[in-house]
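step 4 of 6: structure.
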Amino acid sequence: MGINWTTFFLEIVNFLVLVWLLKRFLYRPVKAMVARRRREVEARLAEAEKRRQEAEALKRRYENRLADWEAEKKRAWEQLRQELEAERRRRLQALEQELDEQRRKAEAVWEQEKREWRRHAEEQALQLGAAFAARLLERLADEHLHHRLVALLLEDLEKLPAEEQARIRSAASVTEPIQGVSAWPLTDAEIQKLNQVLSWILQSQTEMGFSVDPDLIAGVRIDVGAYVIRANLHDELGFFGHGHG
Amino acid sequence: MEGEIFPQVLWRLGPLQFTDTLVTSVALTLVLWLAGWWLSRHLRLHPGPLQTAVEAAVLAMEDAVRDLVPRYVEQVAPFIMGLWWFLLAANLIGLIPGLQSPTRDLSITSALALLVFLSVHWFGIRTQGLGYLRHYLQPFPFLLPFHLVSEITRTVALAVRLFGNMMSLDLVALIVLMLAGFLVPVPVLMLHVVEALVQAYIFGMLALVYIAGGIQAHEAKALQKGESQ
């Protein structure tokens, strides 16, 4: 029950040794590990904070970039809209011009077709008129009319201007004889008179040969080389039918 | 019965008498050292349950020291921690059949109490110099005997409290075992666990309070200086 001094003093030594051992092998290592873990946690927190700030900066940068992109997109859209509007106006204008051109062309074609139709109608009318006149004149034509036409031809030849006479002379062929066609047989007086007039025009003695062609209806046709002297109803109606009357 | 309750001298070497409590105490020192050494070799940044528990205990002890002597944690904490670890192990080892708590030996508790007494003055002189001893003459020099009696009695009380409690627990458990038989003392042994923890805590806490009281004047001056700045 009393104090055992050996135990007392050795326990003091023992406990002091224990304190040193625990300080050396428990307290310091645990403290160091806790401090290391705290540093690690603080480093991770700092790293996390740094990454958070970087992420924030990145986020702000991307937001700014998105805003820039949005503005750029709006500008591009506006520019595209303006270009499309300009292109639309340009194409509309070109289309209107093309339509005007087409309209003018259509109007010109229409006018041309109208003229052609009118000309055709006139020609048909003339041909109808000529046919009608031919049928009428065929029934009305007689030898008296024939001789009257020959008389008119003689009058006209005698009054022929000098230029026309020169043209007839130039067209006349030396080798080819002057040939005449008559709807009715000519009288000798008429033949003689025609020879005289042509000789006067050609300034040379001329003897024509005549043949009869009832198709001429009335009057004569005289071929002087390339020059044709027409004084018959058939040719006149033909000229009339072709609009040259 | 006496052989089971009171310390036994195992062998003698001249005037030296080696008791079973001393052997147990040394063995506990070796076990605590080996456990600390093994743990220090297996510390990891990502701790397991054991490391977590030990770290929590160490940090809790350090926090308790920091609450009373924040400026001298590094110096005081190892001593107080040593007291807590040793007393915890020494008080609980009696639960193992065939082993006895060393703290049922007054020689052991007296040695620890003397160490506390000396550590109070050691830390006091270390922090304030020999001027620390002036507090025995304050507020009046004639109070010196009362201060001395106070020092001695609280040291004796520290030793006897732990010794008495642990001895009485062992004694009660033995008496109940002898009277009631097997398994009946189990509730008493459960009480033994609680009492062992409480006594270890009280002894270490009182030691810490005494040490803090020894350096309290210096701490107060330092705090006043810090506040004035």
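step 5 of 6: annotate
 - The mean pLDDT of chain A is 87.
 - The longest helix of chain A spans residues 5-140.
step 6 of 6: archive
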